[in-house]
Structure formats: structure tokens, C-alpha cells
Design goal:
Layout: H1 14-17, E1 21-22, H2 27-57, H3 65-85, E2 88-97, E3 108-111, E4 117-119, E5 125-132, E6 134-141, E7 148-155, E8 160-167, E9 194-198, H4 199-204, H5 212-216, E10 222-224, E11 232-234, E12 243-246, E13 249-250, E14 255-256, E15 274-275, E16 282-288, E17 303-308, E18 317-323, E19 326-334, E20 339-349, H6 351-357, E21 366-377, E22 382-393, E23 396-397, E24 417-437, E25 440-460, E26 463-464, E27 470-472, E28 478-501, E29 505-524, E30 528-530, E31 532-534, E32 547-549, H7 551-554, E33 556-574, E34 579-590, E35 595-608, E36 612-623, H8 627-631, E37 642-656, E38 659-675, E39 685-701, E40 707-721, E41 728-730, E42 737-745, E43 751-760, E44 764-771, E45 784-794, E46 798-810, E47 815-823, E48 830-837, E49 842-848, E50 851-859
Parallel strand pairs: 1-5, 2-8, 12-17, 31-45
Antiparallel strand pairs: 2-5, 3-4, 3-6, 6-7, 9-16, 10-11, 12-13, 14-15, 16-17, 18-19, 18-50, 19-20, 20-21, 21-22, 22-24, 23-24, 24-25, 25-28, 26-27, 28-29, 29-33, 30-32, 33-34, 34-35, 35-36, 36-37, 37-38, 38-39, 39-40, 40-41, 40-42, 42-43, 43-46, 44-45, 46-47, 47-50, 48-49
Helix pairs in contact: 2-3
């Protein structure tokens, strides 16, 4: 990377140090003058027609006419100035180099489609004042750097929009093409599978309800269970296999309602259902679908980095969003002269959606999300961020929630399950960025994160009509707490990362130190019967078509601490003007596994001509065992980390600054995969192996004018082998064909229209046969489900067309937005999984059809 040395300035006067200010010298000035003249004419007419006659009619007041006229003239001027102020705002910001975090001097800041512009001062700051209210886009340009487009800068009355922007060095840029830079893209250190979203693009993603996880599901190579679920799986792996970083701090997970323990005591493989981030909290998203560098580890599939919005250091605003699901409140503004504050609070309850979509017997589902972030410019070299998050949830379904007259076999009936869950995630952290020289910076991150799960599962046996209609929910036996799981995890971590830029080389080196405490207890109150079993499961009698779950084999208790340590180094070397190589090496020690691992990695890019490049990545990735799996080992066995070897080869064509085509082929080899030999025991082993391969194709138009869009297609195959003699089988997220298209258009400052289409082949699930009257007792008629083939059949194909419309009204002192967001407008019932019902011998499908939400947002 280029080493940008400070400019030589022999003497800097106060005038030169003063921040450059643009005062709308052309179009903005003419518009303000026009408004002023119109308002002046109004007040002159008022003075001439209404006020002046009063003076003529009252003789004793004639001597005061001049004084009165002077006062009225002053009032007129004040009202005119006030009126102009009420229709304009300011734009301020700071521009730094992405590689070094140093302020950039002399960057041109141009307001698109106007003649307004300015340049940054010696501290990288700029200011444009008296911009008429409305939506703007900026072009940031500087010799030696990629041009950056910033869209949807909203100027509000009497407020100052403030933001910090980063420019990327143009080393490795494609020939003569002016590549428009978006955060995390066109970066030679991340040449493969890199995508990013801006805050506005997340908001415009139809059918996502502002949920970042649902927005990511349209990226090439990314899949999810869809419908009810938002957690993502990348390129043939699962929802638990992704690196999640929030402001450089690792997170346990980013979703609500994961329901730990619902699947025979283990986590639901579909992941969570809703993101823990309220709309417009996430400012930027960087996603790499494999091939990420040595800075990140302990997960083996993809990297997702989320940057939380920083508070506005210039002016404050308060916004509220009221919708069908609940309410969100946000404050954004200065706290002190050097500190800004961004805070949000959200509460959601799904009763309204259940009533609107006709889902019976759902129970009570509520969740909340609280976030506080402060950003302090300690001095010119040190910037400190503090973040605190708390995300509680409390879904439950008791016998009182079950209604007579509903059918237990219907879709989304939840079968015979009762549950009462209490859970929360919390994060508190500090992130200090220090500029150590003109070409280097140092990040120090200290964080504490905690997760609490208290899940209780029961069941009920109602009396049924022959077709499955519930006659009396309480007629038979029911229990609220047959199985309980308590899982409390705490982690205290420290990360120290140093980055140094040389002429053609960027060096990043760091260490991570983590102290972990686990307190886990799983309890089965009594011997239970499992009516779903595999043909290969050990049963004392082959004619016994069910399994007995013994507390002695199920119950587990674990309380222990461990230490994890990591060290890593990564280089980005511009070998020639066309070739960039990124070698890296990572070391990890995992305390609970008592395992040392070394992970070499390499990526690179070779430009071909003016617009094209060949990109590649290869490396070894180790994945830590999930804490819940460590704690649940009844026999105290030590489980090793899983290993993945990744290889990626890609081609990129940059048609224009904001339009690109990317094609990538990839392959993964899996070793030491964790498998469960017997469903009635918590015992796990590392006997599994597997592989996955595929190709992704995408055409992406970034949001640089009034519209953006994306079309992508992915092909994949992902298989596993438990090495139990039964051979290979399709992995849960083996989805061969995935197609998605999305677009958004903003015709004016009032309307934003968005649409999204998604199609994928159905996910594999187990094939089965049903056994009737397994106890040979008609007075206690029960059915059982024998799983005959692991993921041997497919669910129906997934299909969803989503739309969103936003209407914005700018008022003198506030902005009002009314929105409608509909997922699956054609109301196709997309199935996530099937639940067997022993009372009827049928399966109830769990999924989702049309999911509407609507509401309004007001900002003051």
C-alpha cells in the first residue's frame, strides 16, 4: 500500500487551519434567495394591506409610523431568516484513509447534481452549510484513491448531518476504470467472495423488515431455512459455522428464538428467527463468503462484520418506529463536545402477526433489544468507542394457550409441545484505535459477553376427533417441565491488532486472549418415550418401534473454565501493479479441547486488462466445538475442533464504477466433523467427514444513484459421512439451486419502492415410515416415526416474492415515513420442517406464508 506522508507545511495560519466551509454558492444560494424573496413579498403585502391602514386610521399613532415601520421591517427580516433556516441544514464530515486511518487533506467533496462542493482541511474535516432539505449523494475523490460514492444523505431542517468516511488506496485498481469504492469491496486484501451493504441498502431490502440477517440471504452462495428463520448458512455449511464480529468484538449469535434443546436436547439446525439488531442500527456490513484472512478464526465458513452506527457529533435527533410487530426508539446526537451517543430500544410481540396470518395456538412470543454506543475523540490520535447490548426474549406456550376446535395436524400447530423459554445475550466492550504513526495504527479491544438460556419443555395429550380436531386440551396428561436446559456462558476477551503500511506491503498482526466460563445443566425429570427414531438406533427389541430415553443417559451437568489464545499475522503484498498476494498464518489454542492448531492461508488477485481480474483463495480453517456440546458430554469425552480446507477461484468483470459481474467456483473438504452415534445419548464423536463444492454467479449494481439491484444464481452440493457404515448423505443445507433478484428505486424524495424474488430447491429432510399402535393397546393408541433414510427426500421448493414501499414526508421540524413491507406476497406456504405427532400419526408442517408488516417512523 502507498505510504502517504504528511504534507510539508512551513507555516499554517489560523485561517488555513480553519475547516473548509461551502455556503451553497450557486444553486443552493439561488434557491435560498428565491425562497427569501417569496417570503419577503408575502410580508410586504401583509404590511401594505393589513397593517399600514391601521396607522392611517389612528392619527395619534402617525408620529410613531417610522418607529413602527422599523420594528416591522426587523420582524420581517427575522421571519424571513427563520423561514430560510427552517428549510435548510448542514453537512459535515471527516475523511480518512482506510488502510492507515489517517486524515486525508484536500479530498474533493462534491454534492452530486449540484455545483456545491468543498475540500477537506488538514484534519480531514469538511463542511457544506445551508443545504436545502432533501436527499443527496456525494462523490469523494482524491488522487491515488478510489472514488467513493455516498448515497442518501438526508438533510433535515436546522440539523447537521455528520459522518466519517474512508477512502481506499487505488493500488490494484482495475486498469483505467474508475472503481467506485464501497466499504469492504474492491480491497486487494479481500479479493474473493467479498460483499458489503450500506445502511440504506439494508433498509431498502424488501421482505427483510430491516433485519440484516434476512437481507444477507440473497447474496450468492448464502442460504437459510427461509420463512420463519433468518440465520444464514454459507456454501455447504451450517448456521453455527460463521464468524460474527460487531465493532471488532466476537458474538455468540446474532438471532433471537433459536430454541436450544428443541431437537432432542440440541440446538435447532435452522438457527434463529429474527436479528438482534433493530432497523437502522447497523451502519455497514462486510461479508466474505469464505477465504477470509488469518485475522479471523474459530469458525470455518464465512465472515460477517457489522459496524454499529456512530452518534452524530453535531446535532441530535430522536426517532420512533411503530409497526405491527412492536415499537423502536432511537436517539442519535452529541453527548459532550468530544463524545457522541447512539442508542436504541426495541420491543416486539408477535400476537398481532399471529392474529393477522391466522396462526392458532402459537402462545406468547416477545423479545427486546437494547443498544448504547458512545464514540469519543480523545485527541487527534486516539478514538474510543464503548458499546453495550442486551437482548432478552421470552417465548412460551402453556396448556392455557391451546384452543379447542383447532386441529393438531394443521400447519404450524406445533404438535403436542409445550415450552417456556427465557434467554438473553449481552455484550459490553471498549474499542480504542490509536494512530501510532503516519502509516500505522493499533486497535485494542476489551469485551465481556454473556449468554443465558433457561428452557423448559413439556407436552400435552388432548382428546382428539378422528380428523385430529382438539376436543379438550386438558383431557389427558400434560407436563410443563419434562425436560429443562440451563446454559450460562460468560467470556472475557482482549484483542490487540497492529496494522503497518509500507510502500507495497501492508502488515497486520495481532493476538486474542479469552477466558471462558460455562455453567450447563440438562435434566430429564423421568424416563420418557421417543416416538421418532432411526432404523440404525440401538433398540433392545427390533420389534419395539420406539425408544426409551433414560435420565441416566440424558442428564448432564458441567461447570468449568478454560482459556483460549490466538496469534496471527497477515500480509497484503502488491507484487506488481497487476498482482497482489495475501499470505497469512494463524495459531489457536482451544482450552476445552486441549488442542493447538496452525492455519495457513493465501489469497490473491491478478488483473487482466482494464476491467477484469482473476481472484483466488485457499486455506485451512478450524472451528471450535460449540460450548453447549462441550458441556453436554455425559461421559466427559474431549471433542476436537472440526477442520475445513477451502479453495476458491473467481473471475470479476467491472463494467462501471458501481456495476460488476462476479463468478466463483469453490470446494471444501471437511474432517473431524462432530456426529451423534445414538439419538438417546448426548455422547458425541469426531468420526464425521464430508465435502462440498459449487459455483456462484452474480451481477450487482450498488446504490449510487436512485436505484440498486442484484441478480445471482448459485449451484452447490454438500454431503456428509458419519463413517457408521451407512455411506454418504446430503447435508441439511445441501440446496443445489438458488436464484435471487432484487431491486430498489427512488423516483423522488418521497417514494422508495423495492422488490425481491427468491427461489431455491427444497432442503433435504429424513424419509420415514409410520408404525401404528406401537404399544398394542387401543386404549393408549400411539404412532411412531421410523427414520429410514438420512435426508433422503426433499421439502417443497422455496418460492417468495417480496415488496416494500416507503413514503416520506419532510416537515419543518420532523420527518415522517410510512412503510409497508410484505414477505411472500403470493402467499406460498414455505415449509421449514415437519413435526411428527404420536397421537395422530400425522406430521404438522412448520413454515410461513405471507408475512406483512406496516407502520410509521417519525424523526424529530
Amino acid at each position: 500500500m502507498r505510504n502517504h506522508k504528511p504534507m510539508l507545511i512551513q507555516k499554517v495560519s489560523d485561517a488555513k487551519r480553519r475547516q473548509p466551509v461551502s455556503r451553497a454558492p450557486t444553486k443552493g444560494k439561488f434557491l435560498s434567495t428565491k425562497i427569501w424573496l417569496q417570503q419577503k413579498q408575502f410580508w410586504l403585502n401583509l404590511l401594505r394591506n393589513e397593517v399600514a391602514p391601521l396607522f392611517y386610521e389612528i392619527p395619534e399613532m402617525k408620529q410613531h409610523t417610522m418607529e413602527k415601520g422599523l420594528i416591522l421591517t426587523l420582524i420581517l427580516c427575522m421571519m424571513s431568516v427563520l423561514s430560510v433556516a427552517q428549510s435548510a441544514g448542514n453537512l459535515k464530515g471527516k475523511i480518512i484513509e482506510q488502510a492507515t486511518k489517517q486524515p486525508l487533506i484536500g479530498v474533493t467533496v462534491q454534492v452530486d447534481n449540484t455545483q456545491l462542493g468543498t475540500i477537506t482541511d488538514i484534519d480531514g474535516n469538511f463542511s457544506i452549510e445551508n443545504l436545502p432539505t432533501g436527499s443527496y449523494s456525494l462523490t469523494l475523490s482524491f488522487i491515488g484513491f478510489q472514488t467513493k460514492k455516498v448515497t442518501d444523505i438526508i438533510i433535515s431542517t436546522n440539523k447537521t448531518y455528520y459522518s466519517e468516511f474512508e477512502l481506499l488506496d487505488n493500488v490494484g485498481q482495475l486498469g483505467e476504470v474508475t472503481v467506485v469504492a464501497f466499504k469492504g469491496e474492491n480491497n486487494p486484501s479481500t479479493p474473493v467472495s467479498a460483499f458489503s451493504y450500506s445502511r440504506e441498502e439494508i433498509f431498502r431490502n424488501a421482505g427483510s423488515q430491516g433485519d440484516i440477517m434476512r437481507a444477507l440471504a440473497v447474496l450468492p452462495g448464502v442460504v437459510s431455512a427461509g420463512a420463519q428463520f433468518s440465520a444464514i448458512a454459507a456454501r455447504g455449511q451450517g448456521t453455527q459455522d460463521n464468524v460474527y464480529m460487531v465493532d471488532d468484538m466476537p458474538m455468540f449469535n446474532l438471532s433471537h428464538l433459536e430454541a436450544e434443546g428443541i431437537s432432542s436436547g440440541f440446538n435447532d439446525p435452522n438457527g434463529g428467527r429474527f436479528s438482534i439488531f433493530a432497523p437502522r442500527v447497523v451502519d455497514n456490513v462486510q461479508f466474505q463468503n469464505g477465504g477470509f484472512d488469518a485475522t479471523f478464526g474459530r469458525k470455518s465458513s464465512s465472515y460477517l462484520g457489522l459496524g454499529i452506527k456512530e452518534g452524530n457529533k453535531e446535532s441530535s435527533s430522536v426517532s420512533a418506529q411503530l409497526e405491527l410487530l412492536g415499537v423502536t426508539m432511537i436517539y442519535d446526537g452529541p453527548l459532550t463536545q468530544k463524545t457522541s451517543l447512539f442508542t436504541s430500544a426495541r420491543y416486539q410481540n408477535f400476537a398481532g402477526v399471529a392474529s393477522l396470518t391466522g396462526v392458532p395456538n402459537m402462545g406468547t412470543i416477545s423479545l427486546s433489544d437494547f443498544l448504547v454506543k458512545t464514540t469519543t475523540e480523545i485527541n487527534a490520535k486516539n478514538k474510543l468507542s464503548f458499546i453495550a447490548m442486551y437482548n432478552p426474549e421470552s417465548p412460551s406456550r402453556s396448556i392455557e394457550d391451546i384452543e379447542s376446535g383447532t386441529n393438531i395436524n394443521d400447519d404450524n400447530s406445533s404438535g403436542q409441545v409445550l415450552f417456556n423459554h427465557r434467554g438473553s445475550n449481552a455484550l459490553v466492550g471498549l474499542n480504542l484505535r490509536t494512530l501510532t504513526s503516519s502509516s500505522s495504527y493499533w486497535k485494542n479491544v476489551l469485551y465481556f459477553r454473556a449468554s443465558m438460556v433457561d428452557n423448559r419443555f413439556g407436552y400435552y395429550t388432548p382428546s382428539l376427533a378422528s380428523d385430529g380436531e382438539i376436543l379438550d386440551p386438558e383431557s389427558g396428561h400434560y407436563e410443563d417441565e419434562l425436560r429443562t436446559i440451563q446454559n450460562n456462558q460468560q467470556e472475557l476477551g482482549y484483542r490487540s491488532i497492529y496494522t503497518k503500511n509500507y510502500d507495497r506491503l501492508t502488515l497486520t498482526a495481532g493476538i486474542d486472549a479469552i477466558a471462558i466460563n460455562l455453567d450447563y445443566e440438562r435434566n430429564l425429570a423421568r424416563v420418557d418415550t421417543l416416538y421418532t427414531f432411526r432404523s440404525t438406533d440401538v433398540r433392545p427389541d427390533p420389534s419395539q418401534y420406539y425408544q426409551i430415553l433414560d435420565p441416566a443417559l440424558y442428564n448432564a451437568s458441567f461447570e468449568n473454565t478454560a482459556f483460549n489464545g490466538s496469534a496471527y499475522v497477515s500480509l497484503s503484498w502488491n507484487v506488481t501493479n497487476r498482482l497482489t498476494l495475501n499470505p497469512g498464518l494463524r495459531y489457536d489454542y482451544t482450552g476445552f479441547a486441549e488442542q493447538h492448531t496452525i492455519s495457513p492461508r493465501l489469497s490473491g488477485s491478478l488483473t487482466l486488462g482494464d476491467r477484469q481480474s482473476i481472484n483466488f483463495a485457499t486455506g485451512i480453517y478450524y472451528q471450535d466445538v460449540a460450548y453447549s456440546n462441550i458441556a453436554a458430554q455425559s461421559f466427559g469425552d474431549v471433542i476436537k475442533n472440526e477442520r475445513t480446507i477451502q479453495n476458491i477461484l473467481g473471475y470479476k468483470m467491472q463494467f462501471s464504477g458501481d456495476l460488476k459481474f462476479v463468478a466463483e467456483a469453490w470446494h471444501k473438504q471437511f474432517d473431524d466433523l462432530i456426529v451423534q452415534p445414538n439419538r438417546v445419548e448426548s455422547h458425541l464423536t469426531n468420526e464425521g467427514t464430508g465435502h462440498a463444492y459449487g459455483a456462484d454467479f452474480s451481477l450487482i449494481k450498488r446504490l449510487s444513484k436512485k436505484y440498486y439491484g442484484q441478480v445471482s444464481y448459485s449451484y452447490m452440493q454438500s454431503v456428509r459421512d458419519d463413517n457408521d457404515g451407512l455411506g454418504e448423505y446430503d447435508f441439511t443445507f445441501n440446496i443445489p439451486h438458488v436464484f435471487s433478484a432484487l431491486g430498489s428505486y427512488k423516483p423522488n424524495d418521497k417514494w422508495v419502492l423495492s422488490a425481491k424474488f427468491r427461489y431455491s430447491t427444497g432442503r433435504p429432510i429424513d424419509d420415514y415410515i409410520v408404525h401404528e399402535n406401537v404399544f398394542n393397546d387401543l386404549s393408549m393408541l400411539r404412532y411412531s416415526q421410523e427414520l429410514t433414510s438420512r435426508n433422503g427426500r426433499l421439502l417443497d421448493d422455496f418460492l417468495s416474492f417480496d415488496i416494500r414501499a416507503d413514503y416520506n414526508i419532510q416537515m419543518k421540524r420532523s420527518d415522517l415515513t410510512v412503510f409497508l413491507d410484505i414477505t411472500d406476497i403470493q402467499n406460498t406456504f414455505n415449509v421449514n420442517f415437519e413435526q411428527f405427532i404420536p397421537l395422530s400419526g400425522q406430521v404438522s408442517r412448520s413454515g410461513l406464508g405471507m408475512f406483512p408488516t406496516f407502520g410509521l417512523k417519525i424523526e424529530l
